[in-house]
Write a sequence for this structure.
């Protein structure tokens, strides 16, 4: 299942994709089909329900299919829906892995920079935007705005000291994240937070795909295009630290919670890696594709 937070007729809702053209408002479907109101008002709260939420939505989809002639009040054309970030207001910083693809390390430095341990930084929740929202160029603040296409995981339950072999049990699903970065600020301040946290520099979406749709998260293909030109193209099997490594390391002595978002690093092909650099400019369109999640699209304003 593909879950999202959407908006239609100025009203926000929690949705699930039916097919390429139709989506379902799960709370309205629950009220109509089961005459119940058990689901929370946000996708992050639904995720905390765990398997119960996924099973409940599965039942709603089955019932909606049987009652196809009477579903107009809770099924919408996808083309009519504005897709927000799946979790529009994360409760804490987005955790991100740095230098997790060897080729990316090399394009930004040298073999001496390849990390021996997982490298973590964070992005502020206020940087989050959704699919097709505009990325601000922030002229006067930065002149080196860059893109980074990444697979992100969404935690499904809380845990601490999680063993690598147990990691998948704690994951809810997967989404796409563009770790937009002000390279000059990153260099100037000798750390990542400011250069990674400008408003609109964390597009996420368009969906969270439940883990049942991903057979092997270590064999997903990340492709980033800028104005139609392929810039990044790599499999997650090339990551230096696996998702199991990342989650297990983060959870050592620190509780990870349901709804936490963890970006797993970017492959080579970022703008700064070209000679001369290809930083983002007004009007640029960035498309990041990871199947079976889909494509996250944003333009620079």
């Amino acid at each position: 299942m593909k879950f999202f937070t959407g908006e239609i007729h100025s009203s926000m809702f929690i949705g699930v994709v039916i097919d390429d053209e139709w989506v379902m408002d799960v709370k309205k479907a629950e009220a109509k089909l089961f005459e119940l109101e058990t689901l929370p008002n946000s996708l992050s709260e639904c995720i905390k329900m765990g398997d119960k939420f996924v099973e409940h939505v599965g039942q709603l989809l089955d019932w909606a299919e049987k009652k196809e002639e009477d579903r107009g009040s809770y099924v919408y054309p996808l083309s009519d829906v504005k897709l927000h970030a799946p979790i529009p207001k994360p409760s804490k910083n987005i955790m991100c892995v740095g230098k997790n693809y060897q080729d990316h390390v090399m394009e930004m430095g040298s073999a001496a920079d390849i990390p021996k341990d997982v490298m973590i930084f964070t992005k502020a929740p206020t940087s989050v935007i959704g699919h097709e929202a505009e990325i601000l160029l922030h002229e006067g603040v930065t002149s080196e705005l860059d893109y980074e296409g990444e697979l992100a995981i969404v935690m499904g339950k809380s845990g601490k000291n999680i063993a690598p072999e147990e990691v998948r049990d704690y994951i809810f699903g997967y989404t796409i994240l563009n770790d937009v970065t002000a390279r000059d600020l990153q260099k100037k301040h000798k750390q990542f937070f400011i250069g990674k946290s400008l408003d609109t520099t964390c597009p996420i979406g368009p969906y969270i795909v439940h883990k049942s749709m991903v057979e092997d998260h270590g064999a997903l293909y990340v492709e980033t295009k800028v104005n139609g030109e392929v810039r990044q193209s790599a499999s997650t099997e090339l990551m230096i630290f696996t998702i199991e490594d990342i989650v297990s390391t983060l959870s050592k002595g620190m509780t990870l919670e349901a709804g936490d978002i963890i970006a797993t690093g970017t492959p080579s092909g970022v703008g700064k890696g070209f000679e001369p650099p290809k930083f983002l400019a007004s009007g640029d369109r960035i498309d990041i594709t990871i199947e079976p999640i889909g494509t996250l699209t944003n333009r620079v304003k």
Remarks:
- Residues 175 and 208 are 5 Å apart (CA to CA).
- Residues 94-300 form a domain with the Fumarylacetoacetate hydrolase; domain 2 fold (CATH 3.90.850.10).
- The chain has a mean pLDDT of 96.
- The longest strand covers residues 202-210.
